[in-house]
Amino acid sequence: MDQSDLTNVSARSWQLSERARKLTSSAIREILKVTERPEVISFAGGLPAPVTFPAEQMRAASDRILRDAPAAALQYSATEGYMPLREWIAARYSQGNVQIRASQVLITTGSQQALDLLGKVLVCPQSPVLVETPTYLGALQSFSLYEPHYVQLSTDDAGLIPAALTPELTAGARLLYAQPNFQNPTGRRLPLERRRELAAFAQNAAFPVVEDDPYGALDYRGEPLPTLLSMAPEHIVHLGSFSKVLAPGLRVGYIIAPEELHFKLVQAKQATDLHTPSFTQRIVHEVVKDGFLDTHVPTIRALYREQCAAMLAALERYMPEGVTWNRPEGGMFVWAQLPAAIDTMKLLEDAVAQNVAFVPGAPFFANEAQRNTLRLSFVTVPPEKIDAGIARLAALIRARI
Amino acid sequence: MDQSDLTNVSARSWQLSERARKLTSSAIREILKVTERPEVISFAGGLPAPVTFPAEQMRAASDRILRDAPAAALQYSATEGYMPLREWIAARYSQGNVQIRASQVLITTGSQQALDLLGKVLVCPQSPVLVETPTYLGALQSFSLYEPHYVQLSTDDAGLIPAALTPELTAGARLLYAQPNFQNPTGRRLPLERRRELAAFAQNAAFPVVEDDPYGALDYRGEPLPTLLSMAPEHIVHLGSFSKVLAPGLRVGYIIAPEELHFKLVQAKQATDLHTPSFTQRIVHEVVKDGFLDTHVPTIRALYREQCAAMLAALERYMPEGVTWNRPEGGMFVWAQLPAAIDTMKLLEDAVAQNVAFVPGAPFFANEAQRNTLRLSFVTVPPEKIDAGIARLAALIRARI
After folding, report:
1. One GO BP annotation here (chains A, B) (predicted)?
2. Mapping DSSP to helix (H, G, I), strand (E, B) and coil, where does residue B127 land?
3. Is the confidence metric ipTM above 0.90 for this complex?
4. In degrees rounded to 5, what are phi and psi of residue A92?
């Protein structure tokens, strides 16, 4: 037996964990690889528009940090995160009766890590985990490694329906996961009254309600609704991120949680990556500490509002009867529903052949999927291309009705 | 029931996962918190010396990257990592018959994340995991979240004894974890002949041998021994890091693995933190790409060699009979054995009261601990303080014999 035979025998025969065996390659990911071709108009991306990245501010901040505090910025640091950044975050969420403590804030390597840590600390195999219908695909990917039993919660065009959270449905759950602001994939925003109901539910629940809020700052009119955290600060686990308001490539997010859970999350994070890079945490703090976001975020809102309007206008102009979609008040996504007979996974293959792309809705459902749905992102496509892309997509749909 | 009562009931009653309930606070960590006081001479740190961080090179690299490629450096990027850095790593490990492919390299958020991903992908509850006696504490922390059954492997002053890897002992194992170069905590380096034996074992094993190599570049004479990877490239999972040769605060490490395992690790990483920060990966590449390490690493070696010599001289000068220690040929640690009756956990409390600190050996043992052992780091303590600190510690030990 020569070396190459041994190779094949050995690496392939290594036994994987149960959870790893369940990991499958995404068919969508394979199809979407071609969308990097410049001729493709892609509404598939979940990426923020790079024109919104404050590169010069980051450059100046990096330079100051490596000039003034190189040893600290380049050394190992506390698992909990950079204290001035934790304090800044706590202060930003504190107002009136609601006081968030820096001791509740854990800095994470992007919000995705927050999901992994919550799975680690809360989920056992077959634990019930409550999710919206549909829900964020990245959360499903994270939690699934801990092998939960998903329970899909009822939703309508306004999002989660708190009245449907019956004791029978929620018994034994380890967490409820929700994105109340401009949800990925639907773009839905939970109305004020439902927030009050969900916060009241959280106060009596035996498990945390997780409020994942990467898009909250991106409401087009600058009229945010109160967070669940502000309504029930000791009963909500709030996830935040600088990815959509500064830049995702720094991978800086955070978890705000009651101290009891915070300590466990810190222990889990220590075993997971010791700490988020000291340097990137300091860059974020240096850029935001003097109020930069107050002038910067409105420019992102204005850009996305304009591109969202262009997409809604194009949908109105081109889509045949039988196609419906929502009108987001913020965020990055429009959610569309096609006639029931159209499977958007199959539609995607034809669309890509016509140089237009989107994300099929099916992977965003934890259990039974609505296969006639799709997600459209407008944030990285200029208005004239939005019009052309939606026209192409509408023609394909029309041909299938 | 008022708001604060609800708080106490609720957050404390949230049910944690089995793995999280097993996480305990480290008594050592609590004791060592006081070692941040300036009057304490601490041999407890595992931190590299900040004088070795190339801050000016990092500053210039950051500036160039944010000037020339801000959109790419600040945007989401591939889970696998920054391709030029992956190619640089693959080339660095390729020589003669051994060709490492960029497609085998996954960039991780520090080496600690590599351990978490291996646990995720390979370890089920009660899976046998083979570890050295003692072994790296951080690896135990990572793997333990996946609830393995640890099997302690026989070692002597030269490290792991491959001849003791019998079929009975290794049956059903999911991985063997080893640090052949200047192991943390013992500073031991595995001799060439044992490397050959361990590589041969790996070629016939039904599980990967994981070669964790953060300290390999730090051999004081600049005469590295060949890696296990170079001896059995398709049978070894090799972990590397820029933490000890550039700076740990960037959190950039990597896994080299056969593609079959690599793909699974990529899927697991995607669910864990999407990707390591784009910016820090580019900084590392920008600093190392033109041969910087070839001149930089010898300066780190020279510093650590000198401080190691100072510690060995002080141990020789002050330690009473009955205390033994090794003479590392590289790395950051000396491992000492005290008379059997001395429990170094208890010794630590007295030592801290006398303003000198170390890490007790017990937590580095997966199962039965040798409680009369301790780890001494010399890299952040100047020679005159090393002498004073060891004198104090020796006096405490002498009083207990």
Report:
1. alpha-amino acid metabolic process
2. coil
3. yes
4. -65, -30
Percentage of chain B beyond pLDDT 70 is 97
Give, in words, the CATH class of A23-52+295-398.
alpha beta
B234 touches chain A (CB under 8 A): yes
Per-residue buried b or exposed e for B72-90, using 16+ beta carbons within 10 Å of the residue's own CB: ebbbbbebbbbeebbebbb
CB contacts, 8 Å: A10 with chain B: 203-206, 234-235
Does residue A282 register a pLDDT over 80?
A: yes
Note which residues in 30-49 of chain A have CB less than 8 A from chain B: 46-48
Between CA B215 and CA B168 the distance in angstroms is 31
Do the Cβ atoms of B271 and A20 come within 8 Å? no
Give whole-number Cα distances, A56 to A298, B63, B319, in Å. 18, 10, 56
Instruction: State the CB neighbour count (10 A cutoff) for residue B30.
Output: 9
| Selection from A336, A314, A296 nearest residue A381 by Cα | A314
pLDDT value, residue B10 = 63
CATH 3.90.226.10 assigned to A58-290: no
Average pLDDT over residues B44-48: 88
pLDDT, mean of residues A244-267: 96
Element (H, E) at A256: strand A253-256
Whether pLDDT at A279 is above 60: yes
CA distance B46 to chain A (A): 9
User: CB contact, 8 Å: B1 with chain A?
Assistant: no
Mention the CATH class of domain B24-53+295-398.
alpha beta
Architecture per CATH, B56-290: 3-Layer(aba) Sandwich (3.40)
Predicted confidence (pLDDT) per residue in A211-228, tens digit: 999 999 999 998 999 999
Q: b/e per residue, B103-127, with b = 16+ CB within 10 A?
A: ebbbbbbbbbbbbbbbbbbbbbeeb
Which residues in chain B have Cβ-Cβ distances shorter than 8 Å to A273? 109-110, 112-113, 116, 251, 273
Of A311 and A8, which is predicted with more confidence?
Answer: A311
